[in-house]
Prior knowledge:
The chain is mainly α.
Amino acid sequence: MDKKEFTISEVIDSIGISSHTWIVFVLLAFAMIFDGYDFMIVNSTNLFVAHTFWPDNANPGALMGSLTTWGLLGMVIGGAVGGIMSDKLGRKKTLIAAVMFYGLFTLPQAFANDLAFFAAFRLIAGFGVGSCIPVVTTVFSESMPSKQRGVFVTFGMAFMVVGWVLAGLIANPICNATTPLLGEFTNQVTYMTADGGTATMFANWRLCYLIGGIPLIYGIVLIFTMHETPHWYANSGNKAKACERLTQIEQATRHTSHTYDPNLLIVPPKPAKTGPAVLFSSKFIVATCAIWAAYFVGQFCVYGMNAWIPTWFVGLGYSATDSVALQTWNNVAAIASNIVVGFVSDKVGRKRNLAFSWLFCIVAIILCSIFVAPNNMMLCIALMLLFGFALNYAITAVQPLMPESYPTAIRNTGTSWCQAFARFGGSASSIVLGGIAGMAFFQTAAGTTNWSTVVLVLIIPFALGFVCTVLFVTETAGKSMDQLAAEEEKLGASESDGNVRFIAMLVIVAILAVLCIVCPLVVDNWSKQPYALPLMAIGLLLPFAYFFVFGGKQLAKNKKLRA
């Protein structure tokens, strides 16, 4: 390549899987493990936190669901801001800041005695968690060979689920310990039970949040071990630094002293704009509709169910210990699915794989609803393994599409804003499902929640995910990042006409937040109001109406341009 032009993707593809590949993989894997732990520790401890905050309320409902919501709302903000920071300041700086941020602000949650204090620091810590995930996805996509990119992106996401599993494995024995593990700090709590009686526990859940401060140390490790990606250097105008980094990667792999000439490096042109509004321009609106719709569905279902799985099984008569264990088995299956989905995605293509995954989810949720039963732990473990595999297969199948849908200059902005929007689905889901659970239609004759009926509601978002995948997803498997950028350029669509569509989406997000998050928390007996379910349905379905209108219109135009 000394005398001919080249691209960064060509060099990385020519080097193939190398020691550099595995170093990046390990560094990002640990970041995702800590990230996953920080998120899931709330779902693994929420029963115990609820007993501490509301000892006189045997069924906190939406309040308990909101314990998950605050972190997700922080992730929304962090994802939106962190994505822009990453494209402006670099992947390395943003990732280090994110990891240390959520480690630092998880610690104060251990000292919370009420929802306000807990929610405030959960929101702040969520900012770091939300910034971390899209940066990791972007670095994977920019560092891995094109043919194996899907495998590494999805395999890397599996380590977030490893963090989920660790949260369950750590929280279960700590929270259920029959003695105070940290003296008066983990004080005894007397709380009301569903049958009107009382019980006692120790607030050992606080220790789980002290453990959540470990990422502070890992952030220091990243300062000395992680490198910036050549793609980011080149797109930021520093071709010399990009070529220097390529030389370092090749030397570490082939032990050669090859030097790349910055004057021969081809860098795809930047979009006319680089803010979030460009994601809604004619050039990118179809891709945005595809990944936003699919990831919204995945987040709604994954985070909603993870928040309520322990409660579901407690309602069936399982102990709190067994219920958290079943949630953990659900997440164990997620690790396996995250590993498998990347291989399948690279083999059969992104679109086919994702479309199949939504149909798989529909089958899995129906089986879980029909066959889950009390006093049959082995059957429930099998069902949770099936459900965890199916649902996490679907949400992870979206992951490779995110960075592949946008050029380098807006790649992390696009990835992070997609994840930020989807987290509104996750933020709303724990509250919406909690609100639905309190409605008369979903109650048993004894007045308790029939969670096996509640989970069938998930068929609706699964079906919407399938339809949006079939309509909007464009195949990207096996193509280099430069090829994908070149294909977008051929259509010649505008990059500067997205402002109105962007504002329209912000309005829809605000409506969703009010109807599905604010109202359930501030309106007394919201779930008992006859208008509650229709309003929440409107809030959740409005984004899909947007996708079908704007995405469908541009899709028709693109087909004419290609004809």
